[in-house]
Specification:
Layout lengths: L36 E9 L7 E3 L2 E2 H15 L6 E8 L12 E9 H14 L8 H9 L8 E9 L9 H10 L7 E5 L3 H7 L4 E5 L2 H16 L3 E8 L2 E2 L5 E5 L9 E4 L5 E4 L3 E11 L2 E12 L4 E7 L5 E9 L2 E2 L5 E7 L2 E5 L1 E3 L2 E6 L2 E9 L5 E10 L4 E8 L3 E9 L2 E2 L3 E7 L2 E5 L1 E2 L6 E6 L2 E9 L7 E8 L4 E8 L3 E8 L2 E2 L9 E6 L5 E4 L1 E4 L2 E5 L3 E8 L8 E8 L4 E7 L3 E10 L2 E2 L8 E6 L7 E4 L1 E4 L2 E7 L1 E8 L10 E8 L4 E7 L3 E10 L2 E2 L6 E6 L5 E9 L2 E7 L1 E8 L3 E10 L2 E9 L5 E2 L1
Parallel strand pairs: 1-4, 1-6, 6-7, 7-8, 9-16, 17-25, 26-34, 35-43, 44-52, 53-60
Antiparallel strand pairs: 2-3, 4-5, 9-10, 9-13, 11-14, 12-13, 14-15, 17-18, 17-22, 19-20, 19-23, 21-22, 23-24, 26-27, 26-31, 28-29, 28-32, 30-31, 32-33, 35-36, 35-40, 37-38, 37-41, 39-40, 41-42, 44-45, 44-49, 46-47, 46-50, 48-49, 50-51, 53-54, 53-57, 55-56, 55-58, 56-57, 58-59, 59-61
């Protein structure tokens, strides 16, 4: 057998199952009565493919060595077990490749051959081929002749047959001849195709790594050396009570036996014992009263599993509960009932058709039942006496609940923003629940009686309302309505005689503060286009209107008084809206310069651009427009680009009237290709020598630099017009005043000397 100190896969627990007997009184019959020795020959693959890596830097051979040594070290020195070792693919002396298989350790008791096998395993080095069929035939000759026993082969291979033999047919032949039992085959790191070719040899186990190889070999050892199995179940009242039952196993003389627990009691207790005939006894305690049942002549045979069922029969009585309200049965799902005995909870009644029931040991019980009506009702029954096997019927009659439904009207409309609470005799009984799908409707379940209702608005500016003496009869639904007056602030925005609403990412806000402070109270909500309102407490407030719209300044309304139960309404007339449209033309075509970022900036008139309003939007090329509140504005056109110049063009005191469009077409003229040929002291000039700058004659504003295209030539586009040209050598300047640039092309040649430059 396996050493219990080394193996973790076979839980061996010696259990003394007869209460009151000492362990020394029990004799082990497992090995002594078996009478059949087990011979296990391990056939190990040492072919060249075992050099391949399987886990990190470890080869298949390395892993196989570790697992096999661990297995052999863990085997018990059992007199009924002998083992041997055969290896193939080891390139044994005097062997051809397809006969390269040798018995390196013959059969012997585990304690005698263990050291030799461990040394052989350690010396293995993968080299040759895979003669599985030849190894099986040779292994059949290795087992002792003329001795009764179980001849078992355990084959570990990482490849299929490589010498044209048919190992599956050879295995079948040896089994039919009675030489060996069905072999155990462990395929180590085999492909699916290779597995199919070795699976038919015997009982097949697949392994991919060290853990699975170890598990496979351990599982085989359990099957090979395991004793007969005994499975015991215990039942009472039609339920499995194995886990609560003491199981006793006695031999033919009535003495307890040493058994092996293969699986602890759950629904089945699995044991292993020696072959023989036994008596199985079960003891089950019900309310401190022991019950016993047994089964005799339980015959256990090697390699077989025997199942025993111990049935204690009907151990309990039954309590069945029927409940009704208003003459109608209450469904079990609406009930929760428990039974008690001697002040202790003995369990919950469960649904049993149209009723509740529970099985209990014989005795006297109290019952408590909750009915999940609205409100919940509770009834109890005491002193229910139950005999074993008896069914006791209990009937309960609950009141038929009624219902109160309330509709809350706030400021003329149904509203959910109300807490509704139920009272009786000045004591709160709980809150009403919202009726889904019906605005402002709440309900509560009640028993017959008279009630008071308190409705408390959640919105500022409302006072709680009482509804008293609401009478309800059993099963009746009473509908009531509660009307609550409000206190509000409402602000309406008007533009062009219509409600005004900003369609923008940043929405208009009406912010409420406590009057004379910056203490924020709330924002009014936009309930419809241009209408902002909210429930408020009475008091004095300041209102701030922000983000009203492009071109409209924020507004304040100070010291607004709000009175209880009234609506303070303010209408803010924002006037009308007009539109500004600017069209830029150059060379007779719409003009703008995306790279320069041409802009048309709108500011309040007379502020010289300090009171910025917004930029006009370029709706199509060269067309800039936007709606704007009526008023006076200045327009600044800038970033026109190098062809026009980087100076600004202003249109001042633009008057916008509601409903009208101010449109201005600005013709920037025609473009001209300008070229200056410049020499200095007879040499062509470069950017290192001079800079050529252009200015507007009328405003003196800088327009642009002409750019050096090649030595001596400075070029660029300009709109037709009159310009001043400054040529500087970075220390002094040479000016050409009033140069008229015409459409098309303009050329000028300048031959300068150092004396032509004026000092700064």
């Amino acid at each position: 057998m396996l050493k219990s100190s080394r193996r973790d896969f076979l839980l061996k627990v010696v259990v003394l199952l007869v209460v009151g007997l000492l362990l020394s009184q029990a004799g082990s019959v497992f090995a002594a009565e078996s009478g059949e020795k087990t011979y296990i020959e391990f056939i190990i693959d040492a072919s060249g493919s075992m050099r391949e890596k399987v886990e990190g830097n470890q080869s298949r051979m390395d892993v196989a060595k570790e697992v096999l040594k661990e297995l052999v070290e863990g085997l018990d020195d059992d007199p009924m077990l002998e083992i041997a070792l055969r290896v193939y693919g080891f390139q044994l002396p005097g062997k051809s490749s397809c006969q390269d298989s040798g018995l390196l350790q013959g059969f012997g008791p585990v304690g005698k051959v263990r050291s030799s096998i461990l040394q052989i395993v350690e010396s293995l080095s993968p080299k040759g081929m895979t003669p599985i069929g030849y190894s099986l035939r040779e292994a059949a000759k290795d087992f002792p002749k003329g001795k009764d026993g179980r001849n078992v082969i355990v084959l570990v291979t990482d490849g299929e047959e490589s010498c044209l033999a048919n190992p599956c047919a050879i295995s079948q032949e040896l089994q039919k001849q009675g030489i060996i039992l069905k072999p155990y085959v462990v395929g180590f790191a085999l492909s699916a195709a290779a597995e199919e070719k070795v699976r038919c040899i015997g009982n097949y186990f697949s392994a991919k790594d060290k853990a699975s190889l170890s598990d496979a070999l351990k599982s085989i050892m359990v099957e090979v050396v395991a004793a007969p199995s005994l499975e015991v179940e215990a039942w009472a009242d039609g339920k499995n009570v194995t886990a609560k039952t003491d199981i006793q196993v006695l031999d033919s003389s009535g003495k307890p036996v040493v058994v092996e627990v293969k699986a602890k009691a759950g629904e089945v207790l699995r044991l292993s014992a020696a072959e023989g005939v036994y008596t199985v006894i079960g003891k089950f305690i019900v309310d401190n009263e022991p019950m016993e049942v047994s089964q005799t002549n339980v015959n256990l045979k090697g390699g077989q599993t025997t199942r025993v069922r111990l049935d204690f029969g009907d151990m309990t009585g039954k309590i069945v509960l029927y409940a009704e309200a208003g003459g109608k049965a209450i469904p079990p799902s609406a009930l929760a009932a428990r039974v008690y005995r001697d002040g202790k909870d003995r369990g919950q009644l469960l649904a049993d058709g149209d009723r509740l029931s529970i099985r209990v040991p014989a005795g006297t019980y109290d019952l408590r039942c909750d009915y999940a009506s609205r409100p919940k009702q509770t009834l109890g029954v005491e002193g229910i006496k139950v005999e074993r096997g008896e069914t006791k019927k209990v009937e309960l009659t609950f009141e038929r609940p009624g219902r109160i439904q309330v509709k809350t009207i706030v400021d003329g409309k149904p509203s959910d923003q109300v807490d509704v609470e139920l009272y009786q005799n000045d004591k709160s009984l709980g809150r009403f629940e919202k009726v889904q799908g019906e605005r402002g409707v709440f309900e509560v379940g009640v028993l017959e009686g008279s009630y008071d209702i308190l409705a408390t608005p959640k919105i500022a500016g409302f006072s709680p309302q009482w509804l008293n003496n609401v009478a309800v009869k059993a099963g009746e639904t009473v509908n009531k309505e509660i009307v609550i007056s409000s206190t509000k602030i409402r602000v309406k925005l008007i533009m062009d005689g219509k409600p005004y609403h900003v369609q923008d990412i940043i929405m208009t806000r009406v912010i409420v503060y406590h009057a004379g402070t910056t203490d924020y109270v709330c924002d009014l909500e936009e309930i419809e286009k241009g209408v902002f309102e909210r429930q408020m407490k009475e008091g004095l407030y300041d209102l701030e209107l922000v983000n009203i719209g492009t071109g409209i300044a924020d507004k304040w309304m100070r010291d607004q008084e709000v009175r209880s139960g009234e609506t303070l309404e303010k209408i803010v007339n924002l006037g009308g809206k007009g539109k500004i449209r600017i069209k830029l033309i150059a060379d007779g075509k719409p003009y703008s310069d995306p790279e320069a970022g041409t802009r048309v900036i709108v500011s309040e008139a007379g502020t010289d651009g300090d009171e910025y309003v917004f930029d006009l939007e370029e709706t199509t090329k060269g067309v800039f427009e936007q709606e704007i509140k009526e008023g006076m504005y200045d327009l600044c056109i800038c970033n026109l680009g190098p062809a026009v110049g980087f100076g600004e063009k202003w249109i001042r005191d633009v008057e916008i009237s509601g409903g009208e469009t101010f449109e201005r077409i600005i013709d920037l003229g025609s473009k001209s290709d300008v070229k200056f040929k410049v020499t200095l002291n007879g040499d062509p000039c470069t950017n290192d020598d001079i800079r050529v700058m252009v200015y507007d004659v009328e405003t003196g504003d800088y327009v642009r630099d002409l750019e050096e295209t090649r030595p001596g030539f400075f070029e660029g586009e300009l709109m037709e017009g009159v310009y001043d040209i400054e040529i500087t050598n970075f220390f002094a300047s040479y000016w050409i005043r009033g140069v008229e640039i015409t459409a098309g092309r303009f050329d000028m040649e300048l031959n300068l000397t150092d004396e032509d430059f004026e000092d700064w």
